Every structure is written in structure tokens, then in C-alpha cells.
Amino acid sequence: MRVLITGGAGFLGSHLCDRFLRDGHEVIAMDNLITGSVCNLEHLAGNGHFRFIHQDVTEYLYIDGALDAVMHLASPASPVDYLEYPIQTLKVGALGTHKTLGLARAKGARFLLASTSEVYGDPQVHPQREDYWGHVNPIGPRGVYDEAKRFAEALTMAYHRTHGVRTRIARIFNTYGPRMRLDDGRVVPNFVGQALRGESLTVYGNGSQTRSFCYCADTVEGLYRLLNSDYSDPVNLGNPTEMSIQHFAELINRLVGSGAGIINHPLPVDDPRVRRPDITRAREVLGWSPSVELEEGMRQTIEWFRGSLTGK
Questions:
Q1: Quick check: is 195 in a domain?
Q2: pLDDT tens digits, residue range 65-105?
Q3: How many domains does one find in the chain?
Q4: Does residue 87 fall inside a structural domain?
């Protein structure tokens, strides 16, 4: 298989590159590097089955030769990033999805959109099933990401219904693991970085809001299975084990061995109160469910961050 992965220099995209290469496929990674990093791909230098293209996917898109699959992961994905790059976030969700769908159609390739649990917004249904339409503020600060992904899903289904493109949609819930950026702004790097530096962990609100965390290897396995399935409706990929942010902060302090404690700051605008996937569809359609326990995944992630901070 020859596959194009947009956002291939990002945290999750680079792990996906590794998976396809490990299974003997040819991989083309494309990234404009506004949030991705070539450091995530440096271990692939010299691999004859791998190629990197430094390009913005919203621009004219040309790939020579055949393609069997296009996996569209390109997008700022953390609040820090999409609040800094709001227009780029909207463009990659709209124009970038249009370009990559057009490429998949021209090549007769399968197409997978990496969507997000953020399409559910601040949900009024819990846990979130794929048939829930969401509760989103389109003009709030988070709307640039939420609506970019919602539009991308609509465009993907339009290409599927109108042009017969073999499309897949993954709604990814909080994924964590090695290669996340320390300045990413998401809860895992925030907490781990603060704990490793001996700082108090910053919890927004009273910490009662909940999240669920899925290790990157599990998410990659779900994406791989979804691409190779024949299922075109959205599929949640995430860990259904839910915990409060307060409890998660206490867990990180315990795993790191930090006694610096926790401080509370005001809750950001439109911050979801709950987040937990219903993965019944993933279990039934893909035979997939996460296998890495949170403490084990966090230990590996903490060690990676520890190396990043010490330069080892």
C-alpha cells in the first residue's frame, strides 16, 4: 500500500507513519510544520519507503504515482494552537479536506478523516454516541476547531455520496503519548511538564470536569483498522474510562513523585464539562477497544517527557 498522511510530522501522525512502515507499506508524510516537527520523523531518515513533503495541504496538491490511501490528520489540535492559528485551523478543515478528498478521488484511493470528539462540543448526552449531533457554540473561541471538523465531516460524506469515494471518519478522543509537545497546551503535557519541574499543577475550575485518555498506540491501531474497513459512518476512537481532571492531576503527581500540589484557575470559555466516548460501534465494526491501561501509558509518556526536559 502507498499512503499519504497529512499532518505526518505531528504527534499522532508520526506514530501512524511508523505503523504503516512497520507493516511494509510506503508512506508519504506531508506537513507545513506550524505545529508538527521534523524531530518526530528524524528516525525515519534513510528509510527508502518513506518520503516527507514540507507543504501546506490547503495549497495546490500534487502527488506523483499511485496512491492507495489518503489519511487527513493535518490540523492544529490543541486549544493553544487553534486559538493562535484560528484562520489556518478553519482553512485546513475546509480547504485542506477539499484538496485531500479531491486527490483521493483522482487516485481512486481510500480516504480517512481524523475528526475529533470536539464535534460534540459541550455535550448534553453522556457518554457520546456517534448518532449524537452535538452542542457547539459556532462563534466561541473553540468554534474555529469544532466547526472546521464538523464541516470536514460534512464534506467527506458529500464526496462519499456524490462521487463514491471510499471514505472513513474517525472521531478521536483525548489521545496522549510520546512526541507530544511540552507547550502543546493540552492537559497531559501541561500536568506532566509542571510535575517534572516541581511546579503546582494548574487545574481549571474546580476539577470536576471529566475526560478520558487513550494511549497513542491504541488510537493508531483503531485508525489502521478503520481505514481497512468498509464502514463509512463516523466511528468514535477513545478510551471509555472516565475520570475527573482533579483525580487525573493527583495521579500525575503520584506517578512523577511530585509534592508541589494543585492550584485552581478560572475555567476557560466553552470548556466541555464531560467527555467520554461510547465505543460500541468501534467494538462491533472494527473489533477494537483500547488495551493500554492509563497508568502504564502515562509511565511511558512521563519518561519520554523526562528525556525531553533533560535533553537525553
A1: no
A2: 999 999 999 999 998 999 999 999 999 999 999 999 999 99
A3: 1
A4: yes
